[in-house]
Amino acid sequence: xxxxxxxxxxLRKDYPMYGEAVHALRGVSLxxxxxxxxxxxxxxGSGKSTLLQLIGGIDSPTSGTVEILxxxxxxxxxxxxxxxxxxxxxxxxxxxxxxxxxxxxxNVELPMAEAGVPRELRRARALELLGYVGxxxxxxxxATQLSGGEMQRVAIxxxxxxxxxxxxxxxxxxxxxxxxGHEILELFRRLNQDGTTLVVVTHDDxxxxxxxxxxxxxxxxIVIPERREAPAVPGLPASTA
Amino acid sequence: MRGLGWxxxxxxxxxxxxxxxxxxxxxxxxxxxxxxxxxxxxEKSFADLLLARGYQIRLTPKxxxxxxxxxxxxGAIQLVTSIRQTPGIAAAGAVLGASLYxxxxxxxxxxxxxxxxxxxxxxxxxxxxxxxxxxxxLGVLLSLPAARVLQAKVGDSVTLVGRLDxxxxxxxxxxxLMVRGLVRWVYDYRDQPSVGTVLPVMQSLAGKxxxxxxxxxxxxxxxxxxxxxxxxxxxxxxxxxxxxxxxxLVREFKQRLVYFRQLSxxxxxxxxxVTVLLIATLLTITVNERLGEIATLRAIGIxxxxxxxxxxxxxxxxxxxxxxxxxxxxxxxxRYLDSILTSFPGLPAAFSFFxxxxxxxxxxALVLLLTGSLAALYPAWLASRAAIAExxxxxxx
Lengths: 241, 397
Description:
The structure holds 2 protein chains of 2 kinds. Chain A has helices at residues 48-55, 78-88, 104-114, 119-132, 148-160, 178-193, 205-209; strands spanning 4-17, 20-33, 37-41, 63-68, 71-72, 89-92, 166-170, 198-201, 213-218, 221-227. By secondary structure, chain A is α/β, with parallel strands linked by helices. Chain A has one domain (35-60, 79-227): Rossmann fold (3-Layer(aba) Sandwich). Chain B is an alpha+beta fold. Chain B has helices spanning 6-11, 15-50, 76-84, 144-150, 199-205, 227-237, 246-256, 258-289, 291-299, 304-341, 358-384, 388-396, and strands at residues 57-61, 89-104, 107-116, 124-129, 139-143, 157-161, 174-185, 194-198, 216-221, 241-245. In chain B, strands 2-3-8-5-7-6 form a 6-stranded mixed β-barrel. Chain B is elongated. In chain B, 43% of the residues are buried. The A-B interface holds A 49, 53, 56, 58-59, 78-79, 82-87, 89-91, 93-95, 97, 99-102, 106, 109-111, 113-115, 119, 158-159, 162, 170-171 and B 1-4, 6, 9-10, 12-13, 292-293, 296-304, 306, 388-389, 392-393, 395-396.
């Protein structure tokens, strides 16, 4: 059995709204092991994205804890948490959020530059990752010169830059047409087969179908923690892991 | 994010806005620079003018400043002889300033006359021709405006006329002199027609001969550092006279022009405030527009320090470009303003209100860069405090 990459215990998240507390998460517990591909599905407002933000250390829970590779996020300072997000986690957003003034290659280099990777190494790795997502030929194009699907693939390459233990994606096909979305599905499948641990929040049934486990959420609760098959064996090739 | 310079490139995303902001900063920087030059330039220019030929000390009638009144002192030659014998003094000369007239055909032209001792003079430089000798009672030096109005050149003769009889407007004293040289008088205002003769001739023209009158005495100490000691010695020795070093005169001048300094401080401060507002506004708008981008950067692990650094870098870059343009603009406008101000009557043409000095340029540039950094602090703080989850939720909605 692979070790747990993520352990969430009794996560609760309340948002104040007009003086009332809105309960976005009502006690969610979750364990994700290395190499797993987990899809989180549910209707809008069910707490999927909130869950992703809490397990990604982007937001803090009202109560409960999140452990990433044995480190409790709630015990970390802001600086330590930022460092953990940089080196241990990879994020993919619905709207890609690439820096428009940078080229595809520079966007992928960004987290590595922040982590202090020497220029030559980070350039080589950025090109390698862009090749992995099929965009080696677009390395020098600015983000604004890329199509939606290409931007999302660059965002995936950026998320992989610092060899994260866990990749978190929030509606990664939400802004894409069906054909382009399919390319991203394929890429996720390949990533997982190469050993990447994935948690994907999605409305896209096709994405959910290819996951090892689908977590259904409703009103801030996990209602069906479903497991389809055993997690993939970890061991990304040197080029991606 | 070192080496990627994304924040600087971001400035190019809204070129018109960035360009207009830089133009605004340049105008403010130019104004600040002009005010810095004005605040220190007048006294620097005044001191340079007084020290143009190295004479550090002036003696005038008690209670007066050089050429401040028409008061004169008597026994000038004797005083100069006595001063020249004082230890530590390299040179001393008497000067008499007087109004007189030059005759051109049937008309008389108003001139200003300098009586000088050519062997110890600090009032002119020769442009063409020669100098007067100490005993040259037949020669005269003309400024270019004087040569023009008298239609004279080197080697010509000119007739100078002293006091007019107020009843019949005829000359009481007249002398025909040969033009030895054309000179630039250090303290002349623009287009001032001035002439110079040896002291006794001017005294005679001005009717001051009987008492051997002079308007001031100019003294050069052998060493600049010895000037204060020489001043003290001269004050003791000649208590009937006003003895001032150039530093004393500059101090007095500063006192008289204190309103100029106040004006320059006020306008300089206003230009700094405008710069701060411009940079802070531009960067705050930019940060607010890019909150989603910044939240994403923070989410993927870019530290607050990096975000702050990038925003500050934007502020400093805007300021640096604006300041560089502002320095050029400031120098051009200073030159233009200087030409207007120095054309006012009664000001020496060699005088300058705006003196570009390395210190003032450096000081203005440093103040601006500091201001730019300070102005970027608020937007940088705003960027660093972006609530990541909240912004990302809003972006996704």
